[in-house]
Amino acid sequence: MIKLRKTIQIFIIVFVLFSVFLSSIKLTFDGYYGFYYENQKVNRTTLSNISDYLYDLKPIFLFRSYTGFETGYGFFGPNVSSDFITVFKVYDEKGKLIKLLDKVNLKSKEGTIRFTTLNSLFLEKLTDKENKKFNQYLDIIVNQITKYVGKDYPKNYKIETELYLFDYPTIVDFNKGVDKKLILIKKYSL
Asked: Which of 67, 89, 115, 138: disulfide with 160, CB 3.0–4.6 Å?
């Protein structure tokens, strides 16, 4: 009886470790192909096809669904996305740049958290560029933030908000010494 219990325990441990390892491999392949070959037909590697097949087997499917392993690294920690860089330029009545701000002076922790959630909205914008209503919604939000920044300055001052995103090089370009660069996503003026 003790031998059977130890065998079952070893099987469970090996099954859990295998499931974690398989999830890591499968989700790494999915992330790679999704990033570099989004919306393209591509011949995936044999290892990728094997991991897809094993990942969808009924026992592993049930285990990952009920335990949360199918959420990828989010199971172990938060999923870190790219941050947008928001730059506020303050111009005086003569059009001279007098201040450059890279953050909004918010009064509460809740306001700061809400401001940081804008990143997810703008990441959605990058994948759904044609949604006119969503773009108008984002324009309203950024205009309100720009007005909030402008309330600390005289009414005849101009506030300009620019949204940037880092453009990271591919692995090949990185090995050639290419560094990340900022790309302008949108510019707002009030």
From this structure: 89
